[in-house]
Amino acid sequence: MSQAKLPYTTGDNNNETVKLQGDPEASVVDLKDTVDMKRITTAVIYYCNITYGISSLFLAPVIVDFRNAYETDMTTISWVFTISRACMLVFFSMYGVIFNHVNRHGLIVALLLITGIMMGVMPYCKTIVAFGIVNIIRLITYAGWATAQAVWVIEIWKEASGPYIQGQHFCFALGAMLPSLIFAPFLKEDQDPQNLLKINETSISPTEFDHNITLTTEESPSLSRLYIPAGICAFLVVLGSIFQLVLFLFVKSSNKKPKNRKLEVAQEDPKSSKGLKSERRIKINLIILASTLVGVCQVMETIAFQFLPAYVIYSNPNLTEVDGAHIMSAHTAAYTLGRFAGIFIIFKLQPKTLLLINILFVVAANVVFTLASGSDSFEMLVGGSALLGIGFSTIIPCVYDYVKMEMTVFCSR
């Protein structure tokens, strides 16, 4: 994996030393003093991954609000998300190249700042076109952080990065819990009993119900009640940009040393041409399989994160937006606890074993959801959401950890 250089990415342990060329005064430099900086850098990465989780699930609790405000249907909203994700996918593939030609750390600061600003202005969008454009910009910019953070911790801690990878993804899960908790107090608690009685009498479908009853607090749909929670989420993301800026400036000032120093790389014994081709083929197959697994998991996670609350509201007219937010909280809480447990479980289980356990949980969750679709059981929806959260929790970090064990992640600049 070729990525641009980020600060403090050398070192496998606390007592590491490296030979430097070009400085007769100091041919060997003890890197113990960089360990604290590694930990600070890791802490900043962890906080920004919390904001990554916030941004990923930012709209999940309030999709119905935007649908009602723009007086459209869920199909149109779904198309907005699909187009936005397609643009995000294009930039995912581009950032790997972009980061090799620009200062990655400096660009991250700008991308996080733009992401936060876009989150703050979304409730002020008056049309669905403006909403779509702002959402595309938001996803494109936070895709930059998603690309950068994937290997940053591996670059810092190398062979010791296993639990740090789990911790990195735990912070994402922690952030994924926050949008539902932040938005829930601003959502309407109960629907109008008269309207519910009218539904029962006329036996209209949940979709018709949603067209006739607004879930906002005013008679006409309005997003004004989302200004405060959206502002809180935006502030947390902008704060991550500020932390990255402080770290960037500190690293830049501390790196003002002779530029002719170069790391002396140990030369490996040459291998036969046949052996190199075989190893290259194995690595290519591993990259393809790992990318496919991560991609499939990302698709399933995105669907669950974005549409689980809307699914709850549409599947049962007796449930409110707050119920949807609570079910989403159960999903993200289980997701977070699973990732927290993964930090310790990874010391006992191989990544491939933990990966298999996760897949079994995902299968079990889908069975529960299938059974819940034929009933109005709120408890089954909560249970299925929790099982799904546990199943998704450590799939991606396990894939990264396994690939790290089989391949070397290095900096190209």
What keyword list fits this structure?
3% strand, transmembrane helix, 69% helix, two-stranded parallel ribbon, transmembrane transporter activity, Growth Hormone, Chain: A, MFS, 413 residues
Percentage of residues in helical conformation: 55-70%
Kindly state the number of beta strands. 5
User: What is the CATH topology descriptor?
Assistant: Growth Hormone, Chain: A
N-C termini distance? 12 Å
Structural class determined from secondary elements: mainly alpha
GO molecular function: transmembrane transporter activity
InterPro entries: MFS (IPR011701)
Pfam family, one: MFS_1
Keywords: Membrane, Transmembrane, Transmembrane helix
Description of the molecule:
- With 413 residues, the protein is mainly alpha-helical.
- The protein has one domain (2-11, 36-260, 298-411): Up-down Bundle (Growth Hormone, Chain: A), CATH 1.20.1250.
- It has helices spanning 35-56, 63-69, 74-98, 104-121, 128-157, 162-183, 193-202, 206-212, 227-254, 273-315, 321-345, 351-372, 378-393, 395-406; strands at residues 2-3, 17-21, 28-30, 262-263, 410-411.
- A hairpin with a 6-residue loop joins strand 2 and strand 3.
- Mean pLDDT is 75; it is low at 1-5, 8-33, 189-221 and 258-268.
- InterPro entries: MFS (IPR011701).
- Keywords: Membrane, Transmembrane, Transmembrane helix.
